[in-house]
Amino acid sequence: MTQQDAASPTGSEWWRTAVIYQIYPRSFADANGDGIGDLPGITRRLDALADLGVDAIWLSPFMVSPQKDAGYDVADYCDVDPLFGTLDDFDRMLHAAHERGIRVIVDLVPNHSSDQHVWFQEALTAAPGSPERARYIFRDGKGENGELPPNNWESVFGGGMWQRVVEADGTPGQWYLHIFDVSQPDFDWTNPEVREYFRGVLRFWLDRGVDGFRVDVAHGLIKADGLPDYSPPADGDSMGGEDDDVPYWGQPGVHDVYRDWHAVLEEYPGHRALCAEAWLPTPEKTALWVRPDEMNQAFNFPYLTTEWDAAALRKVISESLEAFPAVGAPATWVLSNHDVIRHASRLALTAESPQGEGIGPLSAAQPIPELGLRRARAATTVMLALPGSAYLFQGEELGLPEAVDLPDSARQDPTWFRTNHEKYGRDGCRVPIPWEAAAPAFGFNDSGASWLPQPTDWARFARDVEAADPDSTLHLYTRLLRLRREHGLGAGTLTWIGDEGDDVLAFRNGNVTVIANLGAQPIPLPSGEVLVSSEPLTGDVLPADTAAWLLS
Ligand code: NOJ
Ligand code: CA
């Protein structure tokens, strides 16, 4: 058996129970000291992830890109951006991960490319109506001279969703669609050439041995026929909305695409995962993206966006455990990623914090750090006891908060620029993570350079500091992951225990009882041996904002 086989044994649908750790490559570990994390950096630090006990890693994009949206603007889908290394570095990283029994999922960005992609460059110089333009969504403008955009859609990052081009003869020309930044033109997924191209991209990475794909904006690929006008509700979430019929989200045609991809993955031995990033308001709608012959998983964003409230959490957990298994899929769980305020800060915010808006020094609501961390530890203690698969975001195992006080001059998220600094955007969760308290850039590299400045007090979150403290968040995560595996919780079944009070979340999974106190007063601890708790316990009470697992 090769090492790769060892990580992907045939017959195991490993993704059903896996804990998958998201690496944001530019902020994980920087081997060459240029201030931007890279693939050799990841390889060097894999032992830390093996010690933590994760089953797989998912890497945010590291493909060739002008980095207008931190790599979610891909110019070449089949090569590594020199910022992050080379294809050989990728192969070495993959091999080293597999050697440690860690599977590797890569990020695929099929909704749009970079405007530097060769196809888009060809489209710009080609004529309206040409096959080159037909790979993207080019339309004539409205108005007497085509001076108005083809419809009223608004970009997720702010501003309009259309950009007018200058034709080869120098005259103002057609418009192209971009759900995100102007540098991210949307592909036309009704075009068979686009479909064939992405089959090739999938095979390219599958041939190298990856274990699956996280699919960016999986609900956005197909747009409604005729591109009808649409205005989102003022209080809606720009990535999904509460509306049933958004002409650029969740159109039924996308299912054909994923059925096709599923078949491509099936060509390869062993089990590989397709995970949809689809921001939809309910678990029921999210589950539409996972079917036995399509995606294997979808991120549970309704869970991520649920406030710290026992009744709300009970509801979303119950709904998830109905909706996903009903389509033959595992429920998934996630609390943080590179697009949202880290949960160690978010859970102590009173105001709503919609996806992508971020938080900064002048935001009305400011998190209380101690409360946020306490709740985050309790929230993760609940999450890792839930049946199904869970996603972690790098740094949450250290209890990292959002970097709220980033200087404006350091911010890089297009959201910040496209909203004229109205929304801070996502940089605060993307700051390079600390490894060693006393090293330059807290061990992110040897040079001290860092593409976003690290808060000066992050030494206390450094991995070496936490490794030496048995009560640290790092030790909590490590214990939770070990016990989760030992007790088979990922493959278990949840039964609610209903009579513990309104502010209490209590359930049984196999022989483990999980109890979380979301109220302000301590509550009695049920009988049983405490396996792990989110805070040190004294006596037989469970303090406020604390969760514990007990042997029942
Ligand atoms: C979702 C990604 O997670 C986000 O970071 C990115 O900006 C958008 N999709 C556009 O690709
Ligand atoms: Ca680097």
Helix-strand category = alpha/beta
Number of strands: 20
Low-pLDDT residue spans: 1-11
SS summary, helix count: 15
Summarize the structure.
The chain has 552 residues and is of the alpha/beta class. The chain has helices at 3-7, 39-44, 46-52, 87-99, 118-125, 192-208, 254-266, 283-286, 301-304, 310-326, 343-346, 369-383, 414-418, 463-467, 473-486; strands at 19-23, 56-59, 63-64, 76-80, 103-108, 138-139, 162-166, 172-177, 212-215, 273-276, 297-298, 332-334, 389-393, 494-496, 504-509, 512-517, 523-524, 529-533, 541-542, 546-551. The longest helix is centred in the middle third of the chain and has 17 residues, at 192-208.
Descriptive report:
Residues 1-11 have low confidence and may be disordered. The protein has helices at 3-7, 39-44, 46-52, 87-99, 118-125, 192-208, 254-266, 283-286, 301-304, 310-326, 343-346, 369-383, 414-418, 463-467, 473-486, and strands at residues 19-23, 56-59, 63-64, 76-80, 103-108, 138-139, 162-166, 172-177, 212-215, 273-276, 297-298, 332-334, 389-393, 494-496, 504-509, 512-517, 523-524, 529-533, 541-542, 546-551. The protein is built from 15 helices and 20 strands. The protein is of the alpha/beta class and 552 residues long. An eight-stranded parallel β-sheet has the order 11-10-9-5-2-1-13-12. The chain has a five-stranded antiparallel β-sheet with strand order 14-15-16-20-18. A three-stranded antiparallel β-sheet has the order 6-8-7, with no helix packed on it. Strand 7 and strand 8 (172-177) form a beta hairpin. It is globular and about 80 Å long. The structure holds 1-deoxynojirimycin (NOJ) and calcium ion.
